[in-house]
Amino acid sequence: MPSPRVFIVRHGETEWSLNGRHTGSTDIPLTANGEKRVRATGKALIGPDRLIVPKKLVHVYVSPRKRAQRTLELLNLGFEEPFPWNAHGERDSEGLKCTARIEVTEDIREWDYGDYEGITTPNIKKMRKEQGLDPNWDIWRDGCPGGESPEDINKRLDRLIKEIREKWHRPVMGEDADPQQPGDVLVVAHGHILRAFAHRWAGQSLKDGPTFLLEAGGVGTLSYEHHNIEEPAILLGGAFIVDI
Fold this sequence. Notes:
- By secondary structure, the chain is of the alpha/beta class.
- Helix content is 30%, strand content 15%.
- The protein contains seven helices and eight strands; from the N terminus they run βααβαβββαααβαββ.
- It has helices spanning 15-19, 32-45, 66-73, 121-130, 139-142, 150-169, 191-201, and strands at 6-10, 57-62, 77-79, 96-98, 101-104, 184-189, 219-224, 232-234.
- The strands form two sheets. A six-stranded mixed beta sheet has the order 5-2-6-1-7-8.
- A hairpin with a 7-residue loop joins β7 and β8.
- The model has no long low-confidence stretch (mean pLDDT 95).
């Protein structure tokens, strides 16, 4: 029986993601191209013989920001229950049937950038130099004044990771587990917080800094080595699922 997975999906392109402005609490929509690319991702990666199999999903966590929620709306999934928010736009189709429950959680909202909200990294470094601070700013080490520190991020992500493992994954990893019971989890959120989530999933300190990227609209996969819940791992290349 394959190990359960967590699929992390970054929201689609926005005007601020295009020009590198840090977007935390600012609630801006996807661009038209961002919506188009998310639709393409859903069609390419979601299906009975694709990377994300709807019937294997047991739960969906989504950020409270509308750019993440709109991304989920466009991902080719047809949920039995209505979205727990007012729709942010039209959908091309109802999507593929999925019985997973959707939960909006603050634990996976984007990093609170505080004083650096809406500012690009080069301008942050320039501003810090003018303030007499170290211009070699690194969010993974320094956090954001007026916002969240790496320790703040650790706390809320570790809480969510623990919930996923205990509530959704452990029940499907025992010797007596039903192989037909769904155990995959989908997390739809933002760039920095999902990179941090993957880093913490693998038990790494944020201060070491993730050296991997997640593009707007991109999809990543987390799972376990040796089907062992004590060996969480980042799945660099996930195969499509085909029933034999």
